[in-house]
Amino acid sequence: MARFLFTMLPANDLGLPTRMVPIARALADRGHEVAVFNPAPAPGKLIAEAGLTSLPMPARPMPAPVFDLMQVSEAWDVEHFFGGVYTQEGYVRGAVAVYVDLVRDYAPDMVVDSFEPIACLAARILKVPLATVLQGNIHPASRGFHWWESVRPAGLPSAAAFFNNVASEYGLGPVDRCVDLMEGDLSLIVGTPETDPVAASTDITYIGPMVFQRGDAALPAWVDELNYGQPLIWVYSGNPRYAPVATPCDSIVVIRAAIEALSKAPVQVVLTTGYQDLPEEFGVMPPNFHHAAYVPGVLMAKRCDLMVHHGGHSSVMTGLMAGTPAVIIPTITERESNARRLAALGAGEVVVPIVGADGEKRIDVAEFGRKVSRVLSEPSYRQSARRVAESMGQFGGAQAAAERIAEFAVAPPF
Length: 414
Prior knowledge:
six-stranded parallel beta sheet, Rossmann fold
């Protein structure tokens, strides 16, 4: 049996753990030793629910990051995104040292990462085989988040120089881009060639949708008691607030828009926040709204008539694998990229927010309401979502991904 360490960008969202936990669980069920590292609170709850070992922070203190959240929010592609996440060489140096300790102490046969180039660099430093699990628009060979535009703007910020300076201190050569660090020895793509296209010449394996749900999961009893004579809309905001003040990445706009547009509509709304607190400003929910911190995603997606969410890749995958259409309010460009892919498949609509002078994102609520009504009333959206769901069935999912990773760890081709 082999030993695997799962890592990911430690954001306090469920998107990355939702895609990684099913694979980690499948490997653990095969008898392998598996640990997951993501010290953020909401991911920790999902990791615990899956019954997986969650590694604590190493003894070496993690330096405090300094983000350029506007750049993160408006990033043209993942290289530009990383330029807003890794803004200081000192942070990269300190964080790499922490991850080197983490990998060295756990001594895995393979690191399995999603979207954390520092973990990928630590694996390379220690010469540990690396598998990466990425959505299409994050892979180094993708067309980026603005895939509908033909020319990448010149002069976009990059943190490659910081990473290369630190890598040289460990005896490694430079990379042209930070994103190149995520070219794993084994590269797995969540989704399908239709949902997550990557250059055809790239050495990747598609694994289909990847969404965690316990085998014994069930929806709360109150969901079944909702009015079956009205459409059921599942509103998922993800993290409404990333800080005590407004940031460009917040998804509170999703909740505000849903309440304004749907509170008096003849629909039932289930609002979830992914183990995040509901901001106090909302007070008592409207009578047709029902709030829960978390519900099993696949079951909820199959039960509802429409999803409304922030455009996270895992949310898109959840809706598509359930054959349920969506209206998406994307809160950063990475999410807009996912939303536009879904709309191009005919499985939903997009309402892009704008940032006001106060830093809060807003949408045209009337446009949002019209699109909700359109998707609910026109069968073509659900037909398209179901067609994509059927096409996803040909991919092996978590079991196939676990088998591929285990095979690679035992006999890497190098």
